[in-house]
Amino acid sequence: MILFRRYGTLFALALIVLVFAVASPQAFGTVSNLVNITQQMSLLAIVAIGATLVMVLGEFDLSVSAVVSFAGISAAALFAAGVPIAIVMLAVLAASLAMGAVSGFLVARYRVPSFIATLAFGTVIGGLTFWISNGATLFSGIPAVFRDLGRGTILGVPVPTLWLAGVAVVFWLLLDKTEFGRRLYAIGGNREAARLVGLPVRRDMVVAFALCAALAGLAGLLLTARLGSAHPTGGGGYLLQAYAAVFLGMTAFREGEPSVPGTLVGAAIIAVVSNGLTILGVPSFLQDLLTGAIILAAVLVRNVAREER
Amino acid sequence: MTFAPFLALDGLVKHFGATKALDGADLAIEAGSVHALVGENGAGKSTLIKTLSGLYQPDAGTIRLDGAPVTIDGPRAAEAMGLRFIHQELNLVPHFDAVGNAWIGRRHPRRGPFIDGRAMRAKVAEVAARIAPDLPLDRPAARLTPGQRQMAEIVRALMEPARLVVMDEPTSSLSEGEAERLHAVVRQLAAEGCAVLFISHRLDEVLDLCGRYTVLRNGRTVGAGAIAEIDRAGLVARMSGQGTLGTGSGEPSLPLRERVGERGTTSVSPVESFASPAFPHPNPPHKGEGASGQKPVLAADLAFGPAGSRIAMQLRPGEIVGLYGLVGAGRSSLLRTLWGATPGRGLIAIDGQVPGHGPAGRIARGMAYVPEDRRREGLALALSIEDNLALAHLADFRARRSLPLPSKAKIRAFAKRTGDRLRLVAAGPDSSPATLSGGNQQKLLFGRWLGRPIRVLLVDEPTRGVDVGAKGEIHAEMRRIASDGAAVLMATSDIEELAALSTRVLVLHAGRLVAELDGASLTRAAVVAAAFGHAPDEPRPPSELSA
Predict the structure, then answer these.
(1) Is the Cβ pair B404, A180 closer than 8 Å?
(2) Of B334, B296, B335, residue with least CA distance to B318
(3) How many CA atoms lie within 13 A of B316 on its CB side?
(4) Can you tell me the distance from the alpha carbon of B109 to that of B450, in angstroms, rounded to the nearest whole number?
């Protein structure tokens, strides 16, 4: 029972997988489909890991989907102008990083509530994205080598899955094993206490927001690579799903704190539900309904369990 | 003169955990009198008021109204008995005007289904005409002056017949003129037969305004009687626990049951009672030799607090310097300025070196800080106990010096050592600091600094809300830190603690340093008198201030 309470969300994921596997053994329960799910969840999970960093601080970054769209469009625009792949990627990641740093600076230095700062700045980024693209979908000049980053496989493993694995390991280590990570949890737990023991609170907050945006930028690059095109609202769906993954993950481990492994579990639940319901032919409005209900149920179960303690 | 109280509180006792907030408090109030309730910080005045208003239930003791025992089980019951309370933080709705505020919680007059605004205003105007005819009734409370807000509170209190109005520090934020105006209203209330219980730190005001007084110390009534039979020195003596009575004071109508220091375990642990002589004998410097000859480890000359007043001080190794003052005197503000957490202008040097900016710069020079509010300013509840211990010196726990990767093993070893040293009682180093008792949380905040030699330790209220055993252990730890060569600056509201630990005491009053007491000048009475803004003998501004 203690195990169940502690790892309830993991059990839920296992249960969901099991139900779909029984309901549709030929389509859902195959290795290739499970591998496919890791690919489908990869972009969402990368964005969600970025959001996790900011959530550890007790803040929100609502500009992540705007940054995803911006990165996708600006990469496509640079390719159309004939810029080499490496330079495009570096430039887009640097721009995304800088955008996050601006949000973080507004929040850390001027104490603008992050909700408002990132909502407003995300809108600015959205406008910028439409400006770059003229509102059109961009698809010319995207090199095949770049496209392979988003859709190819290496030894049978989809490349996006490998990106996700790399990002997850790096950021799991960063949050759990470095001084920086401890400081973020300390700031999120008690900003005043962190300041009073001399932690570089402002700097760390700026860095966390910057890294969050850089990951959104990476997701934007991979999105353009996978689709072979970029749309100015291409990242629109990621915002709510990313935070849903983080919240689900907060119910998974570590007494309700955001964590990278938790976020992975959360993203997996969202991806599995979506994949499984699609295979079963459930209409998409029902999928939304069920996904929302699962998130609510997870949070409710955790809070009820907390009250009992 | 016969003394015929209508309201009598007898032997009230109230515990909060291990702390005795009230420990035999008596109070008797006559109809139509102005009664002063005085005492130091933490003497139990607020707890007494909250018990009277039904917010707390006493653990023992009786409350009698017109001779009959009553139970006040909530603010409504107190209201029904004719008791009114004006708390120190005024409780007006800022965007309501005096009329709206006066009717909060009452049955509004109606015309049909609607609230009758005209009748509301008429009723309030009637009350205000008697008390404060010039109070603007239509202005939101947020735009009233502090004095007008007090009047609005009083009008609200008198909307229905009242027998007693309790005013907690009503004049602390008022100008001189506004305070006089309030005094006139208080006298008028008394003349109309409504008693006033007047809580104030301004002793002149108390002597001038009140007819009777009650003195609380450590939750116990230690003196009561007619104001005409006591003077300021007598009040200070009772508040501070000096047995000697000033000239011109009559016999206290209640016996001074015990003297402070003989009270056993309620606030002083056995450890302290032998380790330290009580005032007036100063504690010996903790380093053995006369600390005064040594070079100062901390020298500061800076402006602090909202008033920006200047303070100059030097702390020497091995000494524990007490920082005393009433609530709001600026103790915390001074410590935070020294710590670099709030910006201040001026100079500070640790071991002759100017530290870098902010807390990080102070830490690099061996300064340490234990804040007042451990939950809000001290603990990172998202981290485990051991991570909280490691937080101040994270870089010391690296597996390799060049990489910012903390070593779990090193942190655990430090947590083990520190836990042993402080006798930290915890479920385990992995659990949340939220699971610790207050005393152990406080120990954790000290333990955070024990990884490196401490040069200067700033402590704000080291043992507030801490049980007796932990209190003794924390005091022992502070002595140990001092005897290891650190200078300790300790702000406290607890005069017992001040007496137990300090070799020297700085007293703040209204944001200024008003006294520096050591040696023969360091007595309880001198400390309390200075804190209340009255220099007992010769006014003695510290010599450093002349700079």
Answers:
(1) yes
(2) B296
(3) 15
(4) 65
Given the structure tokens 């406080």, which residue do they identify? B442
For residues B233 and B249, what is the distance between their CA atoms, to the nearest angstrom?
9
Please indicate, yes or no, if residue A3 is contained in any of the structural domains. no
Instruction: Chain A: give the shortest CA distance to residue B328, in Å.
Output: 20
Are B310 and B511 contacting, i.e. CB atoms less than 8 angstroms apart? no
Note the pLDDT of residue B242: 58
Rounded to the nearest 5°, which phi and psi values hold at B450?
-80, 0
Residues of A in CB contact (< 8 Å) with B are: 177-180, 182-183, 185-190, 192-200, 255, 257
Of A177, A189, A200, Cβ closest to residue B383: A189
E strand segments, B218-353: 220-226, 298-304, 309-315, 320-324, 346-350
Mark the ranges of chain B whose per-residue pLDDT is less than 70. 1-2, 18, 89-90, 242-293, 535-547
Q: Please write the tens of the pLDDT for every residue from A49-76.
A: 999 999 999 999 999 999 999 999 999 9
Contacts of B251 (CB under 8 A, 6+ apart): B225
Number of folded domains in chain A? 1
User: What are B's interface residues with A at a Cβ cutoff of 8 A?
Assistant: 339, 341, 358-363, 369, 371, 376-383, 387, 390-392, 394-395, 398, 404-406, 432, 448
Residue carrying structure tokens 């400081």:
A183
CA distance A101 to chain B (A): 22
Rounded to a whole number of angstroms, the distance from the CA of B447 to the nearest CA of chain A is: 13
> How many Cα atoms occupy the beta-carbon half-sphere of B465 within 13 Å?
11
Q: Which residues in chain B are contacts of A257 at CB distance < 8 A?
A: 382
pLDDT band at A105 (very low <50, low <70, confident <90, very high): very high
Is the residue at A179 inside a domain?
A: yes
Rounded to two decimals, the pTM is 0.70
Other beta carbons within 10 Å of A216: 33
Please provide the distance, in angstroms rounded to a whole number, between the alpha carbons at the two ends of chain B.
Answer: 55
Residue-range definition of the domain harbouring residue A201 = 8-308
- pLDDT, residue A254, reads 54
- For tokens 């005197």, what's the residue? B329
Instruction: Read off the CATH number of the domain in which A131 is found.
Output: 1.10.3470
Task: Map out the domains of chain B with their CATH numbers.
Answer: 13-82+162-259 (3.40.50.300), 93-160 (no CATH), 266-366+454-546 (3.40.50.300), 382-452 (no CATH)
Q: Which of B350, B369, B394, B414 to mutate to test the interface with A (most CBs of A within 10 A)?
A: B394
From the candidates A182, A185, A191, A201, which should be mutated to test the interface with B, based on the most B CB atoms within 10 A? A182
Give residues with Cβ within 8 angstroms of B227, minimum separation 6: B36, B206, B207, B210, B211, B212, B213
Mutate to test the interface with A, among B388, B444, B459 (most CBs of A within 10 A): B388
Rounded to the nearest 10 degrees, what angle do helices A64-80 and A238-250 cross at? 130
pLDDT of residue B27: 95
State how far the Cα of B513 lies from the Cα of B305, in Å rounded to an integer: 12
* Model confidence pLDDT, tens digit, residues A2-12: 555 567 778 88
pLDDT tens string B333-371: 899 999 999 888 889 999 999 999 899 999 999 999 999
Cβ contact (<8 Å) for A197 and B358? no
Burial B4-42 (b: 16+ CB within 10 A, else e): ebbbbbbebbbeeebbbbbbbbbbbbbebbbbbbbbbbb
Q: Are A141 and A80 in contact (CB under 8 A)?
A: yes
Residue A151 inside a domain? The answer is yes
Domain assignment of residue A2, yes or no? no
How many Å lie between the alpha carbon of A193 and the closest alpha carbon of chain B?
4
The ipTM assigned to this model is: 0.72
SS3 content of chain B, % helix, strand, coil (to 5): 35, 25, 40
Rounded to the nearest angstrom, the minimum Cα separation between B404 and chain A is 6
